[in-house]
Structure formats: C-alpha cells, structure tokens
C-alpha cells in the first residue's frame, strides 16, 4: 500500500508540484495584492487552506490525459487559474473590489478599466506567471510524461477535492454562520471559500437569474399594472406635499424592534430619546419589517422600491442587474441628490453595485470614514462616530438631498465598550437579550447627539426625519428570555407581533400623533413620496401611503404571515388580535388573497426583470 502510494507520487510528481505552486501562489497574492482584514488566527488558517480544494479539482482534468498532453494540461490549467487571479489583482487596483461577472460585462465599467488598464499593470506582475514557466521547463527537462491515471486514481482525487471543500466550508461556517445565504460580502466569500470557488458560486447565481429573465415576456407586467392601479389609494390632501422640497434623512436603526419603545429595563428607559422624539412625531406602533434572508439590504430594497425582497437569498445580490424605478432615481427629476452613508465595506450586501442600479448618486462607505480600533466595536465604527462623521458628508451634498444613514452598533452580538453603557445589562440567563437593551440604549444616545449636531449645523428646519428599524434583533432562539421580559408566553402569534419595528416620521414644527394603522416597510416609498408632493399613481409599487385615509390595515411578511386590522395569520392558523387566540379562518380570509398575490407578483417582477418592459413614454420612465 505504502509502496503503491509512493509510486503514484513519483509517477505524477508534477501534478502534485503544480497543485502546490498554484496553492501557495494564490495565498501569496491574497496577502500581497489584496487588503483583506484578518480578525483572528482561525481566519488566517481559512485563508491559507481555501485555494486548495479548487486547485485539486482543476488539476484533476490533467489526469484524463497522458504523456505530453498531461504536461500541457498542467501548464494550461496553471495559466488559466493564474490569469483569473491576475485579472482580480488588476481589477482590485482600480475598483478595490473583486470581479463579479455582471460587472465584468457592464460596458461602462469596462470602459473605465479599459482606458486605464495599462497604467494598472506593473512589471513585477509578471511574477504571477513565473512559476508556470519554471514548471514547464522543469517538466520538459525531466521528460515527465506519465500514463493515463486509472479511474480509481481520478475518483480518489475527486473525493479529496470534495472532502477539502467540505472541511473548508465547515470551518468557515463556524467562523461565519450562514455564509452563503446571509452575511453576503464578496470580501468575506474570498476570505472563506477562496477566489476560485467564489467565481463558480457567482457564475451559478448569475446564470440562474439570466435564465429566469430570458423566459419572461413583456405581457406579464400588464396584470401587475392592473392590480397595482386597482389598489392605489389617494394620499390625504392634508399630508400631500407637506415636506415638499425638504431634505430627507432616512435613518435605518439596526436590529431595533418596536417592543423597546416606551419600555424600561430595571426601571431605566431603553430609548429615552426616541420616546421624546415620538412626542413630536408621527409614530406608527403597528409597523412591521418585511425582510427575508437579505436582512438590512432587504429593508433597503423595500424602502427604495416598494417591492418585496425575495423568499430566499438577498435580492441585492441576486438581482442587482435588474431595472428598477427606485426613489433615488425618481426624485432626481425633482432636484434631489441622493446618498447612502454606511461605515462598512462597500461590497457588503453587494451594495456598491446595487446602489448604482437604484440610482443613488453617492455612497459614503468605510473608506470615507476615519475608523480606528478605539472608535470601533463589533461590526465596525460606533454609531456615535458614524453619525458625527457623516455630517460633513451630507453638508457637501446639493440640497435638497435624500440621504440614508445605516447604523450598525446595535447588531448581534451586541457588544459595547464599558464607557458606552448608559444602562446596565439586563440580568436574565440569556446574555444576548441582556446586552441588547444596553446597545439599543447606546444607539438611542448616538441619535440624540446626531439630532443636536444636525440642529447646530442649521440643517434641521429644512429637513424631515424618517427613523425605522430594519429587522428584528432578537430571534426566536431567545424566546425564554423574551417571555420573561414581556411577562407572557411567546406563542406563534406573539412571535409575529415581535416583528414590529418602530417607524417615526419627524417633521419639525408638526405635533406628535400616534397612528395605529397596520403597515410595513413596503409602505415607506409612497408615504415619503407623497409627503414630498410627488405622485406615485403610475408607479409599480405594492405599498400604500400610511397617511391615506382609505388605506387597509395590512402587512404581509416574507414568511407568508400577514396582519390585518382584526386578525393575524401565521403558520396556516388564524388568530384573533384582540385575544391572541386561534379563531375561525374567516376572520383572516378577506386579505388572504391579497397577501398571496402581492408576494407572487413582486417575485415575478424581480425574477423576470419585468420593469424593463414598462412603457418608456409613461411616467414610469426607465433607463
Ligand atoms: C452590514 C449591515 C448589517 O453592512 O448592514 O447587516 P445585517 O446583518 O443586519 O443584514
Ligand atoms: Mn441590519
């Protein structure tokens, strides 16, 4: 056995050497050409092993050839893989990002890159291919020309590649749970599964979207148009245009659920600033998040498009190439400049690419912020610093502006420096829930200071402020602690109620009002547009203005649960909202069809990229 293995190694020595070369080279490129932050040793280990599985798989093809042809295959495979790495290196120098297929085919990007590609190439780059020449000469000298590998050998090599891949993904998953579905970031993928696997993953997702798009045709949008216009509700004339020409501050309050509002923990208010702000704002206590796996990015998608995010995957990633009629693009025609401000890597959630599709003029991301270990915690820059450093950015903008601020400190695992703890952690057996209140309290303080700075900067009077929770922060895994906090059992009915997130619309000079209407993030776009005095009658949107007099109380969540004025439907059971008890399905029925239809139509639009078929002469102008 040992003898046999030894023999195999010597028969195919250059097969193994080539794997080694490509593996080590890829790692060296990671370390020298890209700027990939490493948080711990485990991440270093993952980065080191991640090129291996695909490298073995690539060279497997050479085993189908014998003699000289095998040798040539080795050179060819090495060259192809090195070229992929090299292309990423050059691309990274220009875009500070990794290649994703649609971007490669976007002519505007390539135009940019095409002009400057020669200035991006450096003489030392040729080293990327040096080992291949060495390998070719060496194999030639040695007269390396093995016979065709046996089926068993090929099978074993394939198994080795698969096992290596599973081990790689396994370790990566412990380091970064739900890597492939949730926390999507190109940099994170490269870091965890490697460049080659990432490109395969990217190719699969993009071709799936392409195929769905190819099968869609223009007639499908007509049904949707009819449905949407039949359900359109006129805005309240008293509210329409109330904030005409004002700057819009959209503040995404990370992981903040509505149950913390006007609530105390150990006798201390959790959100004192928001509680005060509500006194002078329109406050919607029955407002739901409607996000799916795309979390924050899904909430952004809902807000800007009034379309539902997808039942699985993050639409920001899977359908960034679609045509949209998003708010930033629409309000440009009304003189607005738009921006997103978020102190995280720009490629997180594929934002850099999606924001272009949504028509954002500017994206202030990590690079535009001064981030140090002292002013960071958890996911990055602390909210206080983020908001303060954002001020000069918005001051540099043309007025009026539409600016979305995405906060981050109140993100799982809810860690804080001691100096930022305004209230002590709660004392249940569940550390996550205990810390949650304290981080929510911190963000509340950061918001208070931000409002003060906005006033000082003279921006307050001419602006409106829309604060909303992006999605839940406490998942169902924490039901026991939540039951203890709320003093009631967390039934499926309560779980849905916990998906309420705060929505506060603050317009300087307006009196406070609590509006109990049931709604969701889907309703934000028409609500905001109408406040700005912009019609949405002809837009494809599933939301209704939250101020509209004859709007129906309604919100459908991405898990198909829906909530009406009197009922709540979840897990195929209808509940009476007054009692929280199961009830006859008749109470839920009136809006059951609406819930189904809306999700179906919205998905259809996204999968088929149907907005591209809209009549260019109508008010729904597309690019
Ligand atoms: C990351 C931030 C948080 O940039 O938006 O993402 P989440 O995990 O909440 O979706
Ligand atoms: Mn979030």
From TrEMBL:
It is found in: Cell membrane. Belongs to the LTA synthase family. Residues 246-534 form the Sulfatase N-terminal domain. This is LTA synthase family protein. The chain crosses the membrane at residues 12-30, 42-61, 73-95, 115-138, 154-172. The lineage of its organism: Bacteria, Bacillati, Bacillota, Bacilli, Bacillales. Pfam families: Sulfatase (PF00884). Its main location: membrane. It is a multi-pass membrane protein. Its EC number is 2.7.8.-. It comes from Fictibacillus iocasae.
